[in-house]
Predict the structure.
Amino acid sequence: MRLDVVTIFPEYLEPLNVSLVGKARARGQLHVHVHDLRAWTYDRHNTVDDTPYGGGPGMVMKTEPWGDALDSVLADGYEAGSREPALIVPTPSGRPFTQELAVHLSERPWLLFTPARYEGIDRRVVDEYATRMPVYEVSIGDYVLAGGEAAVLVVTEAVARLLPGVLGNAESHRDDSFAPGAMANLLEGPVHTKPPLWRGRGVPDVLLSGHHGKIARWRRDEALRRTTAHRPDLIERCDPKAFDKKDREMLSILGWEPDPDGERYGRFWRRTDGVEE
Ligand SMILES: C[S@@+](CC[C@H](N)C(=O)[O-])C[C@H]1O[C@@H](n2cnc3c(N)ncnc32)[C@H](O)[C@@H]1O
């Protein structure tokens, strides 16, 4: 997979040299190119921003540096044999970045990121490249960062760990929280490792029992417990077919029951105490 990042802070992308992404690069599974947007400015001050049309606070990133940068990066990539680029535009007004989207992006051969600063990039840039390639405007959460570089790091790491051969154990992401395709999207429960006793705290007996069936059940119950506590919205949307008898028993203990109007509203579960999430 090829990744290009155009930014005014190339040094912000240094973490792409370490850990999982760094190793994937060293092994040649990931080809990362970070470009300084200011290389495509032609004035003395290397200007990349200007005042917004219509007035208002803040500055807007200019069309010309972005257009020239993207044309040049795309030409480079095509020349190197890359095909089917997709533009990833980090923005708080984008679609939420989810595990499902990470899986989808991990299947593309070439991602080109445009992390912005200031109030973002002149809209015409996105509209222009959307005529040539798929564009994904993505938000990593309901908060506003000063710039998109941290979002690029987030998306890159989520995508890179899904590439074939990048994780030591291919099974590792099968049980992840938010593993897509499941009828029930449950958060992963707690995990433990040696020593068996730490500061007087033991490990749940079942994990030491060697009984695979019981361990699987315990993990499932803990996933249900954690999801009801932290993300009740995920439970509400779970397809009832995703749950077996034991799941239902656990959900009942945790204070949840099937919603008889579920089909109609797409909310299949509700709390037995009547509290709305
Ligand atoms: C200060 S923000 C611009 C915020 C803009 N005024 C708005 O409310 O949509 C500057 C840049 O940071 C990045 N950014 C900020 N928050 C983000 C988020 N939650 N997800 C992805 N990118 C974000 C985007 O690249 C954005 O253009």
